[in-house]
Amino acid sequence: MKIAIEELAGCSGCTISVLDLHEMLLEVIAEADIVYSPVIMDVKEPPEGIDIAFVTGAVRNEENEERLNLIRKRAKKLVAFGTCACYGGVSGLSMLGKQEDLFNCVYRGVETADEGNVIPTDVPPFLYRAFAVGDLVKVDYYVTGCPPKEKFLRTIIPALVRGDPIELSKKSVCSECDRKMGDVQNWHLKRRYEGTPDREHCLLGQGYLCLGPVTFGRCGASCPRNNVPCHGCNGPSLDILREPCRDIHNMMVRRIADLTDTPEKEVEKQLYDVAHTMYPFTIGSLIMEDKEISKIRDLVRGGKA
Ligand code: SF4
Ligand code: SF4
Ligand code: SF4
What we know:
The protein contains 15 helices and seven strands. With 305 residues, it is an alpha/beta fold. The chain has two domains: 161 residues, 3-Layer(aba) Sandwich (Rossmann fold), CATH 3.40.50; 100 residues, no CATH class. The longest helix is centred in the N-terminal third of the chain and has 13 residues. The structure holds iron/sulfur cluster (3 copies). The site of one iron/sulfur cluster has 11 residues, from helix 9.
């Protein structure tokens, strides 16, 4: 069994999450060779005859696209590994600005940039938009998470390597959360820095924008368990993926309206920075953008890089 891990537009965190398997990696490499992974070995090009390729990161520039096409040709099975690969991830937010402005910010604008930094001209050009891996090539398995959580990987990686079938939860983050609904009188949307949420009751009920109802689970609701609202890093829940009339934004608005007995229009007025709060992990996904009711088209209109 030959395994490869490819890096596209991402942060390498997904590959590091594989290393987080620690001693279980020994069991994996007893049955499979990791033949290609630019993050963990000095190797430039994937070999022929790969059995499983884990592809991390989104497709944002021409080099990403070229590497994706090559590894798809050379691998029998391809796993979109991590939320960037599955739904475009945070790279998709680059569609909110122009390439020129982004490069200016990254190479010259940020505090850590050296004075006089020159913007390179020999980097691969952006594609006209960000893509999820499945927007461009056939994907055999999707593994979401930013990055996928160690506990989950401990179940799926050995099964993938051995070819064993496994049953996985298809539930949302809310289904994995043990918080109770509290009092929702005088509900208003709070920013994360406002107050400290109580540890017992639903964060959404307390006014914090918790995306648990619209987010795919398998992380054990790790953020709400640590008193932090879910920001949707596992990508959309299955009902949103399956139903054309359901989208992250409209389902969150509906959920809050039902919960608080507030008209949906009033709820919408309270939502701020919709791109970064509702779609930070999915804005680069054609599946999500193509929905009739998606807000993504409006958000990126005019900002195409
Ligand atoms: S999914 Fe998250 S951890 Fe993985 S490459 Fe993208 S940003 Fe990094
Ligand atoms: S909205 Fe958040 S805090 Fe409330 S039940 Fe769902 S995951 Fe838990
Ligand atoms: S609770 Fe939400 S943000 Fe936190 S790990 Fe799970 S899916 Fe990601």
